[in-house]
Amino acid sequence: MMIILVNPPHPPGYVSNKDTAGGFGQIYADINAATIPPLDLPYIGAVLKKDKIPVKIYDCPAIPMNIEELICEINTASPKIVGVRTSTPTIDWDLSLIRKIKEDCDVKIVVFGPHATLSANEIILNDTVDAVVLGEPEYVFSDLIKKKWQDVKGLVYKRKNKIHTANPDGFIEDLDSLPFPSWEMMPINSYSVGDYVNNQTPFFTILSSRGCPFGCTYCPYIVAQGKRWRKRSAENVLAEIRYLVEQFGMKGLLFRDPEFSLDKDRVAKICQGII
Question: What pTM value is reported for the model?
Fold first, then answer.
């Protein structure tokens, strides 16, 4: 009943960061560009681990790992599901790699990410894709193992050549209820964001809130995370920072919130706690 989560290899000659631009991703011609971890991978891994569902994560660009090596790992592990994180600038490349996985591995392919949410009806038509996750993915993968697919909220899937859609219940309301991301499954020494944290490693990212109420028309974050601001408590955020220091020796941390400072009292508590 294992699940494997995959961030596919970079397109040839480029670096892709799927966690930027609200999770829709960016791509760079500079092969020395910073490598930022896709935060939804260790979050999903943490939920699966909490539910005692076997899981492995392959962040191929950071390991690094090519598609042939990934296929070998998948066949060795024999998972039930391979979850593939995609993005807007890499969708065609990712689908080409998914085809190779499907040809060589007996697995169900589930695609996720903000781009997958918006383009689910198009992606599901690909004959190598079995399902697409709609919305925030943290709990969906666990439900794919524990429930029948027709009972899983937030899923577009195929059965007997028919497409079925179960819309999500909405965004995750209680962010404090999420377990801390399972960074032990990630190649933490491969991530860097350069001068932002003075090149200090191990480097991590953190989300202390999601969403933004301002609704700027050019911004991808509200498309992915919604216009209602959802915050974690200062105590929960500080507990995660302490966990990162004690368990992994964290030296650099980048807050990825769309709107970190909306609640100034909360920011003051976080800053005072860090001090």
Answer: 0.96
Give residues with Cβ within 8 angstroms of 200, minimum separation 6: 251, 252
H-assigned helices in the chain: 40-50, 67-77, 91-104, 114-118, 120-123, 140-146, 221-225, 234-248, 264-274
Q: Look up residue 9 and give its DSSP letter.
A: P
Is the peptide bond prior to 202 cis by the omega test (within 30 degrees of 0)? Answer: yes
Largest Cα–Cα distance of the chain, in whole Å? 58
Averaged pLDDT, 211-223: 93
| Cβ proximity of 36 and 202 under 8 Å | no
Q: In what order do the strands lie in the sheet with 131-133?
A: 55-59, 3-7, 81-85, 108-112, 131-133, 155-159, 162-166
In this structure, how many other beta carbons lie within 10 angstroms of the beta carbon of residue 127?
9
Residue 252 to residue 193: CA distance in whole angstroms: 9
Give the burial class of 73: count Cβ atoms within 10 A of its Cβ; 0-12 exposed, 13-18 middle, 19 or more buried. middle
More confident residue, 110 or 33: 110
- Averaged pLDDT, 199-216: 92
3-state secondary structure of 7: strand
Summarize the confidence of residues 50-79 as an average pLDDT: 97
Three-state secondary structure call for residue 44: helix
Q: Is the peptide bond before 37 cis (omega within 30 degrees of 0)?
A: no
Q: Which residue has the tokens 């807050």?
A: 255
- Identify whether the C-beta of residue 37 lies closer than 8 Å to the C-beta of residue 18: no
